[in-house]
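Appendix B, example 12.
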Amino acid sequence: MKRATPGGRAVTVLLALLLTTAGLLGTQVTNASPSRAGDTENLVKVFVVPPLDQTGGQAVGLAAVAGAVLGDQTRAGEIFQLNQNRRQPDGGALTEPNQALTPGWILRLPGDASGRLVQFARERGDDAVQMDNGQIQGGDTGFPPAAVLAAIGSVLLALITAAIVTRRRLGAWLRRTLERLREPGRRRARLAARRDLTGRFRSDTETVRRAYSTVGSLAVRSPGNQVHALRVDERSVTVWVSGDTAPPELPGPWRGVDDSHWRLDGALPRPDPQGDGTACLVRAGGTDAASAVFVDLSRLDGVLSVTGDESVGRDVVHHLLTEVAAVQPGTPVQVLGGYPIAIPAGLNQVSWTPGTPSRQDHDDESPVRATALRRPVRGIVVVAGTPDRATLDELSRLCGSGGEGWTGLVAGDVPVGAHWRWHAVEDGDVDIPVLDVRVTVPA
């Protein structure tokens, strides 16, 4: 990114001041806007610190606020300077940059703040801002002399006059500029969150133990019902189940979310069996900072195709291989065609698998999978990129009906017969339609 010149920074500051005090652009850059013409006079952008029950019990800091409304956590210092020592509605004040924020506090924001968390407050003559509900921030730090206020008013009047003449062109330029400035920050913040998830998964053995304990407990308490996915967090376990020959029967103390979707709050039942050892539970990702979604590769019995963003799709496959290396070290892996993909340590990469090649016609009547039976993961076939015809034939031989019984992980589109089909998006999330959930993939 090019460094802004002093002149460019001055223009940006003036435009931000114009947005903050007058709000005269034809189209606002945030989704919080006054309702009537003329209501924009003396308005400033603010952020109201949410209650703890909306933040999962975690205190909010200035870095999180800057990331949410400015797209860049490193701009927390700007918010601190705007709010330092200003009296808050509860009588407290922000005195340190790293200070935890109290729910209900009102923080003034830079003029380029945007997003659904940004609100508006009216600036009063005593250097305070007041919300529509009567809450007030500031008012105890004094205000500039009348001469200074008069000079500022003159400058603002000149800026407002110029903005009225060119507001449409200026508004479009400003929106484009702010979007370009915010996007790198959003990408950095998103990547940092995905890397944090990677570290959490590597150190979290308790969640894996709870997942296997759940599968084993249900195998004992509810024979015939098979768990093919789980969501585990600190307070509960949710499972997706299917019956072998009949609809699954709900065992106590589980409660049904729907016919094949159960939830258990609190501690898992004891004893803590591990089932028959067939399950191969791997974390597909997390739905938030405290949960993990597991899928059972022993129920895949065919091919998983990850469509959408290619880079994220490869991250999905690499992460699943890392999970297999942790729970079933030594599993053989063969890479076919497409782009190369790194194989994690702990897996046994091979260049050839036994069996007789068999060509199949790839249409709706001849899927590249076997029927959905639960069986141990014998080996994994990896394809990074949409497979060509020859690769598709090899997938059929290794993973298809009557094949060698291997499991296929494809970071690309398998046009026909993929047993699971997930969709990756650019920001690092993956939709899993069969579970109706979206997870964040570690990076």
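Residues 1-38, 140-147, 356-371 have pLDDT under 50 and may be disordered. The radius of gyration is 28 Å.
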